[in-house]
Amino acid sequence: MRWSFKFARVAGIDLRVHITFFLIVILGAGQFARFGTPGMLFGAAMILLLFLCVTLHELGHALVAQRFHVEVKEIILLPIGGVAMLSRIPRKPSQELFIAIAGPLVNVVIAAAIILGIGVNTSLGRMNLNDLVTTAHAGPSTFLAMKYLLDANVALVLFNLIPAFPLDGGRILRALLAMRLPYARATQVAAGIGQTAAILLGMWGLMGGGILVIVVAVFIFFAAGAENMEGQTRTVLASHRVGEAYNRHALTLSPNDRIDRVIHYILNSYQPDFAVMDGHDILGVVTREDVIRSLAQHAGDVPVTQVMHPAVVRVHADQTLDQVRQSMSEQSSRLAAVYEGDRYLGLVSAEDIAEAFALLKFFDNTSADGSVEGKEIVV
Ligand SMILES: [Zn+2]
Q: Which one is the CATH code of 242-363: 3.30.499.10, 3.30.1780.10, 3.90.25.10, 3.10.580.10?
């Protein structure tokens, strides 16, 4: 993410903080400005401790995800909270459940530890429970710090357990539903509940909960819709193999062909991409863009081998369309060469996959197992 920098690395995961985060530290310091410099340092320290709790929450998600062999790219701290970037969310409901629950559980443990600390201090006579009520208007103190962090951790648990994507509660709900229902259906039901929760939250915001509540409600409402769409797309694409989707009757080129043949093909077929074949081996790919670029550069007719580029993404016919889509996006390519063992079968493009999806979603209600690669944000 832009404007963020790395401040630590834990278990191979980069911890990054967004530059705007420092505004919140300054705001925190300002809250206690009436107590002078010690007050401002206290306020800043409280925000830093709060974000330590948020970081531990994200690490809870991340470390459990790693146990399920999910790659965790990074954790980013933003003024609104933290996000863990996971390479995928396991399709196994129990694994998604453990990953989702681990974050709030960290805050439950921290809150319990603070309650224990308050209990010990009270029983030793170093602290009076009445202090906790009155400290709200008092200056910086250990008591106030404990109360502040206790409230913050309880709030983190309650907020994250709202059953709406992308909050942890939404994932927990989907995972529980997916134990009984097909994945796509579970996502649909969870998204519906999430949107209802968002509407209720928004109504509360309008009735006096405040502008921030309204903003969060709107965010949750659209995030739930997006998660539902993505869930449906993945389910459809994950249940079909690329071996069914590549173009079997594609026109191909030979190394001796020249660009005028490609132009002829483009004008007389709807095919935009052509494999240059040497016997059964693919040497490279010539796309419509390659032809246009070539025409712009050389006026003349050149061999196709001069304008072709290598087909970098190599996929197996058994791979699902969703895996292929992911490989393409990882390597920023809109084309993949499909193989069966060492045998080249044909090309598949991002447009082919989009077209396949458009057709399949009407005929498909199957559920797929196995996790699917993607970029997932866990808050
Ligand atoms: Zn979380």
A: 3.10.580.10
The mean per-residue pLDDT over the stretch 151-169 comes to 87
The segment with the largest mean pLDDT, out of 74-78, 105-109, 137-141, 207-211, is: 105-109
- Measured in Å, residue 334 CA sits from the centre of ligand 1 at 33
Mind listing the pLDDT tens digit for each residue in 21-40? 888 888 888 888 788 888 88
Give 247 Cα–ligand 1 centroid separation in angstroms.
43
Q: How far is the CA of 61 from the centre of ligand 1 (A)?
A: 7
Closest by alpha carbon to 34, among 129, 116, 137? 137
Question: From the centroid of its chain, how far is CA 246?
Answer: 28
Q: Which residues 6+ apart lie within 8 Å of 332 measured at CB?
A: none
What are the angstrom distances between the C-alpha of 121 and each of 113, 114, 377? 12, 10, 39
Give 211-255 as a DSSP string: HHHHHHHHHHHHHHHHHHHHHHHHHHHHTSBGGGTS-TT--EE-T
Query: Which residues 6+ apart lie within 8 Å of 304 measured at CB?
Result: 253, 255, 257, 258, 259, 261, 262, 274, 276, 286
Residue 227 CA, chain-centre distance (Å), reads 10
Task: With 0.70 as the threshold, say if the pTM is over it.
Answer: no
